[in-house]
Write a structure and sequence with these properties.
Distance between the termini: 41 Å
Radius of gyration: 29 Å
Number of strands: 23
Strand order of the largest sheet: 1-11-12-17-18-21-22-2
Number of helices: 13
Helix content: 25-40%
């Protein structure tokens, strides 16, 4: 495969953007004339020479009085208007920050309305309403997309322990709109902490990402999740369903006592949960250790006591490196390198998207490339968590994580409140993460996509990219109902491809999320509908 590595000079020149500010909207002609009369009063016609001087002086005094009255009236009106706008701004801001669950994303900003999932400044989208709001609040507090994304990931580690957690593995793709550089976070190769238990890598990865690219102080990112873990959170529908499935399969024993009633039955939706062990771990992590090794040690020491290990093993550290990229007519397509499905994704979409002109039917080449790529890999279950944080300048962070299986190994560390992964031996789900973004096209827009880990992830992203870029299907439709669809055989490999027009009531069944910039706004979309709530400002 032909691919390039991004260096410090790579990327297209940044485009110059501007925003037109409408400072005054005129009303009726009468109102405009009245404004003119106040600012420029009619001083009367020139007087005749025979008019006596006292009348002339009186007229001039009356004219100046009218001018001064108009100026005083104008000044008073401006002052009252400014006070009203200031009070409204303070009120809106207070409502925004004081109440965690605020109005829906369809709220109005700056005097005009936005549709669902469209925000003028920035947005966070994840699998949890609570965590999306938490990340959005970091943006409001002056954080960048890395701050918001890392804080959201820590929140998900608490409220969605069936998909992600401090015992899991993280991958990331970050695009900096200012430098026009795209960087990937690559985790260390999976290694065993103990037989059947994977080495936890989340804290070192997230700390390394923040230390290199974040803005707010590290403890600020952990504060809200520490409070949630200490004071408690409500089990949402996604976690409740995962708990019920584990219970039905007879695998709920390891989830207790954290996620069980005193009688041993699993908790249901709406139940209140505290995780004091995790709160203590994060509190220690908030002390801002000098290195990721020290941060990992703070977690491994209590884990070793829980597992009766003589000495915590040393772990290899995550790295930041240039993202893989593929040049296309529409811009540069970036994805994650290393032990991910990034290279597989680029191989699948490369030939159809690099062809000159539009392709009437990309299915034959799409299917052939997918079958060739999947012949050399092992299918895996779609277990994992994804999130995105984006601002209206096009900077974006995509984060994907996984425990490899639902609740990972199913083994809870009592002293830390952490579920350990089973990323050992023949674990393959780690290779399927492939967050991707297309940037720096003719209009300077940025499009970013992510799907949970599993063999469907590269196919889900490829279907959207080909439907939108090759078939010119509008982006919202390409996400919810892509025209190109691959069908899998019984062995999990691609079997057939078809091009179908969008059908009402037939949404895209593959879970994924998208964030994109357009006209200095951010659009955040997730499928299935309601599966990935977004919040922004």
């Amino acid at each position: 495969m032909e691919q390039l590595r991004m260096d410090s000079q790579a990327g297209h020149p940044g485009s110059v953007k501007y925003q037109k500010l409408l400072l005054l909207e005129y009303g009726s002609e009468e109102e405009e004339e009245e404004t003119k009369a106040v600012l420029f009063p009619d001083l009367g016609h020139p007087r005749a020479p025979q008019e006596n001087s006292s009348q002339s002086r009186q007229s001039r005094h009356e004219a100046w009085a009218r001018i001064l009255s108009g100026l005083l009236l104008l000044g008073l009106s401006s002052y009252l208007a400014a006070r009203q706008l200031q009070a409204r701004g303070v009120s809106d801001r207070g409502q925004e920050t004081a109440t965690p669950k605020i109005q829906s994303p369809d709220h109005h900003t700056s005097g005009h309305h936005h549709g669902p999932g469209i925000y003028p400044h920035g947005a966070v989208i994840s699998g949890s309403e609570t965590c999306s709001i938490l990340g959005r609040n970091l943006l409001l507090d002056g954080g960048n997309v890395v701050d918001a994304g890392v804080a959201t990931a820590l929140c998900l580690a608490l409220v969605h322990p069936h998909e992600t957690g401090l015992g899991g593995v993280f991958w990331a793709l970050f695009h900096n709109s200012s430098s026009n550089q795209t960087t990937a976070l690559t985790p260390a190769p999976a290694q065993a902490l103990a037989p059947g238990l994977g080495m936890p890598g989340a804290l070192p990865a997230l700390h390394h990402l923040h230390r290199s690219l974040g803005h707010l102080p590290w403890p600020r990112l952990l504060a809200a999740t520490i409070a949630l873990a200490r004071d408690g959170f409500s089990i949402d529908k996604a976690l409740a369903e995962a708990l019920a499935e584990q219970d039905a399969a007879g695998r709920a024993t390891g989830l207790c006592p954290l996620l069980c009633h005193p009688n041993g039955t699993v908790l249901g939706q709406g139940a209140h949960v505290t995780n004091l062990g995790l709160a203590a771990v994060l509190q220690r992590a908030a002390q801002a250790p000098e290195t990721e090794d020290q941060l990992l040690g703070a977690l491994l020491r209590p884990l070793a006591q829980d597992l009766n290990l003589e000495e915590p093993p040393g772990g290899t550290m995550p790295t930041l490196e240039p993202a893989l990229q593929l040049a296309l007519p529409q811009g540069l397509l970036f994805t994650t390198p290393g032990l991910t499905a990034g290279e597989l994704l680029l191989n699948i979409v490369k030939k159809p998207l690099q062809a000159e002109g539009l392709i009437s039917d990309p299915c034959p080449e799409f299917l052939a490339a997918a079958q060739d790529a999947y012949a050399r890999v092992t299918p895996a279950a779609p277990i994992g968590s994804i999130l995105a944080a984006m601002d209206n300048e096009g900077s974006v962070l995509l984060l994907a994580s996984s425990l490899n299986s639902t609740f990972g190994s199913g083994r809870l560390s009592p002293s830390t409140g952490v579920f350990l992964s089973d990323f050992v031996g023949g674990a393959h789900a780690a290779t399927w993460a492939c967050p991707a973004l297309l940037c720096c096209g003719p209009e300077g827009d940025v499009l970013a996509l992510a799907a949970p880990g599993g063999s469907l992830a590269p196919l889900a992203l490829a279907e959207i990219l080909l439907s939108h870029l090759a078939l010119q299907q509008p982006l919202p439709e390409a996400v919810t109902q892509p025209q190109l669809q691959l069908q899998l055989g019984s062995n999990g490999a691609p079997q057939s491809c078809r091009r179908t027009p969008p059908k009402p009531g037939s949404p895209n069944p593959k879970p994924l999320l998208l964030v994109a910039t357009h006209a200095e706004h951010v659009r955040a979309t997730g499928v299935p509908a309601g599966y990935y709530p977004s919040h922004g400002h």
